[in-house]
Structure formats: structure tokens, C-alpha cells
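Query structure, 338 C-alpha cells:
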């Protein structure tokens, strides 16, 4: 493979999995990694697609992730489902815990999945969609490593701390949003650097706290939270709930543990699932139908729903395959042979 090409999801997934298996990941870890990276490419989310493979491999080379980790589910019947990722990637831990989380949320109305001691690089929408597919609403969040200055500050402290939300819909794609609490994901800044493109204004500061559109200076300096003090506070909430509260690393602690931002961060993750049916009991039920009224009103103004672009990209990939550039094909080929 040297030219730009189109692969089926099966072909690309198998290639990604082979790269991870070749360097010593277990089938559990490699399979879960391949599924989430393939999902990123399929949905045209380039900041968390195949570009992430090299970061995962660097994390392995630096001994910061266990490629053979077998995640462990804590056996009890509480509303807090706990999975110890045992130093492996979060994705295998999520796949182990999600069915239990869903079962508890359906029976109790509300349950949480706490993942501890995981390496985490991925988008959160595959996780919230796994739960909306089962008729649940879900919120997912995690810290990252210190790369974002709190509003009013100039030094990296918070992570890019993603927040994902999903709401199930009958006969339609779920309502899903998933974003970094920084102005953009760090992966976007890195893609600008690789492409030699300036950043939009308002994304970052250099080491001296001076606003910059230079991606390299931004990566050495600090990114900015989205929405000023509001994003800064939401990001801090994520540090508290998905770091401090679950007994895992905050973003500054994760950076100290790793010593670098070119590998995937180690911390925990919190996913909360809700049964809309249970919450609406005694209030007329049918909350899913009422939600449609809201979505219709949003669309009625000419606005689009979050994830609409992504679902359109998925439909295109499913119909016509996943198109990769010559550079991307060469990268995969190199990684497969390394
Ligand atoms: P974007 O700003 O690209 O998108 C954020 C969300 O807003 C998406 O759901 C997107 O839907 C939606 N959206 C964008 N434009 C519109 C619009 N005009 N109207 C309605 N909705 C819109 O995402 P980010 O760069 O902030 O984050 C990208 C990814 O990075 C996320 O998946 C996140 O989980 C991941 N990430 C992971 C981290 C980690 O530590 N694991 C850290 C930080 C980020 P659509 O996709 O359809 O455009
Ligand atoms: O894109 O901000 C990001 C990111 C950090 C860790 C994983 N993704």
C-alpha cells in the first residue's frame, strides 16, 4: 500500500489491531484499541483516529502502559461499578464494565462506572453511544494532563478534560455531544503543528503567557479553556469528580507521573448512566417522546444537532469505505513493519 486508498472498516480495524498485537499487546487490549481508533476514522474524528497510534506506541516504549493488563471488575451489587484497568488502556476496562453499568442503571435508575488506573487517549462518544444503544442516557468525563491554564492564569494546570453526553432516541441516532473543555482538543493543536498551519486566535498562550497562533509555541505554553471562566469551572469539576473523588490522578499529578505530554495520560474515568424511563416513572413516562419535541425545535431553527456531522461521516464510510491519504497509508505501513 503506498497510494491514497479506501479501506473497509474490517480491513482498517484488522490493520490497526495487527500493529498493536505485533508490539506485544494482548488480544483484549489490542482489540479494544483497534475498535476505538477505527471508530474515530470512520466518523471523521481525525484528532482521535489513527494519528493516536504512535502516541500509544510511545507510551508502551516508555513503560507507562501495561500491554498485557487484564482489567478487573469489582464484584458487588452497588450502584458504583468499579473496574481496575490494572495499568492498561481505558478501552478494555470500559468494555468489561459497560454491560454491568447498563444492567445496574436499568434496575436502579442510576449507576456509575468508575475506571481506575487506566491510560486514556480516546474520544468519549464511543462510550456514551454504547450506553445510548442500550436505551440509557450517559455522561462520561476524565482528566487528562496539565496543558490548560485556568481562566485568569497563564500556566498549564487543568487538562483538556473531555465531557461526553448521550441521550437515546427511538429510530434515530442518539443525541450526543463530546468535547474537550479546552477551546479545542490538544490533538487538534498537534494536527495543526504537523500540517504547519497557524491556530485560530484564542486557542493558546506561549510559555510567557502571550497569546499565540503558533502551534509549537502553544504546545510549549498553555491552552485556554472554552467559554472563559465557565469552561475553566467545568474542567475543574471534572478534576474533582473524575480525579479526586474516584481516588485517581488529577491532570497535574498525571503530568508529574508521565513527565511528558507526547504519550497518553494515566488517570481514571467516571461514566454515569441514567434510565430515562425510571426517572419519568410517576410523571407520565414517555420522556423520550418529549425529548423529540426539543430536538425538532432546535432543528426547526436551522441549527444542527451535535454529532450530526459525525453520523453523516459514518454513513459515508459505511457506504463507500474509509478513505486514507497517501501519508496515512504510509504511516500505517511503517507502523506495521516496525
Ligand atoms: P469539537 O469542538 O470538534 O466538537 C465538539 C462537539 O460539538 C461535537 O459533538 C460536535 O459534533 C459538536 N459540534 C461542532 N460544531 C457544531 C455545531 N455547529 N452545532 C452543533 N454541534 C456542533 O470537539 P473537541 O475538539 O473539543 O474534542 C474532540 C474530541 O477529543 C472529543 O471526542 C473528545 O472526547 C476528545 N478528547 C479526549 C481527551 C482525552 O483525554 N481522552 C481530551 C480532550 C478531548 P460533530 O462531531 O458532529 O461535529
Ligand atoms: O486531544 O486533548 C486531547 C487529548 C488529551 C489526551 C487525549 N486526547
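Result returned for the query:
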Amino acid at each position: 500500500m503506498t497510494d491514497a486508498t479506501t479501506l473497509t472498516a474490517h480491513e482498517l480495524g484488522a490493520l490497526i489491531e495487527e500493529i498493536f498485537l505485533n508490539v506485544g499487546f494482548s488480544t483484549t487490549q489490542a482489540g479494544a484499541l483497534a475498535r476505538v481508533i477505527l471508530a474515530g476514522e470512520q466518523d471523521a474524528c481525525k484528532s482521535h483516529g489513527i494519528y493516536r497510534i504512535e502516541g500509544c506506541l510511545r507510551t508502551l516504549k516508555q513503560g507507562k502502559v501495561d500491554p498485557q493488563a487484564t482489567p478487573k471488575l469489582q464484584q458487588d451489587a452497588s450502584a458504583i461499578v468499579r473496574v481496575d484497568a490494572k495499568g492498561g488502556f481505558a478501552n478494555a476496562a470500559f468494555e468489561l464494565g459497560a454491560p454491568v453499568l447498563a444492567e445496574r442503571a436499568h434496575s436502579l435508575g442510576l449507576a456509575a462506572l468508575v475506571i481506575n488506573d487506566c491510560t486514556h487517549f480516546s474520544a468519549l462518544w464511543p462510550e456514551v453511544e454504547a450506553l445510548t444503544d442500550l436505551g440509557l442516557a450517559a455522561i462520561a468525563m476524565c482528566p487528562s494532563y496539565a496543558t490548560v491554564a485556568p481562566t485568569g492564569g497563564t500556566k498549564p494546570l487543568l487538562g483538556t478534560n473531555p465531557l461526553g453526553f448521550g441521550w437515546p432516541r427511538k429510530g434515530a441516532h442518539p443525541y450526543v455531544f463530546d468535547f474537550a473543555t479546552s477551546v479545542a482538543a490538544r490533538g487538534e493543536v498537534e494536527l495543526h503543528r504537523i500540517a504547519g498551519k497557524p491556530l485560530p486566535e484564542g486557542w493558546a498562550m506561549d510559555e510567557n503567557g502571550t497569546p499565540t497562533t503558533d502551534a509549537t509555541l502553544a504546545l510549549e505554553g498553555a491552552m485556554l479553556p472554552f467559554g472563559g471562566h465557565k469552561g475553566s469551572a467545568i474542567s475543574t469539576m471534572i478534576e474533582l469528580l473524575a480525579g479526586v473523588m474516584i481516588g485517581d490522578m488529577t491532570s497535574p499529578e498525571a503530568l508529574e507521573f508521565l513527565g511528558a505530554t507526547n504519550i497518553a495520560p494515566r488517570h481514571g474515568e467516571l461514566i454515569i448512566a441514567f434510565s430515562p424511563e425510571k426517572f419519568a416513572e410517576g410523571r407520565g413516562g414517555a420522556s423520550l417522546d418529549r425529548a423529540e419535541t426539543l430536538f425538532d425545535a432546535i432543528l426547526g431553527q436551522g441549527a444542527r444537532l451535535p454529532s450530526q456531522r459525525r453520523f453523516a461521516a459514518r454513513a459515508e464510510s459505511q457506504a463507500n469505505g474509509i478513505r486514507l491519504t497517501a501519508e496515512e497509508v504510509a504511516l500505517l505501513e511503517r507502523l506495521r513493519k516496525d
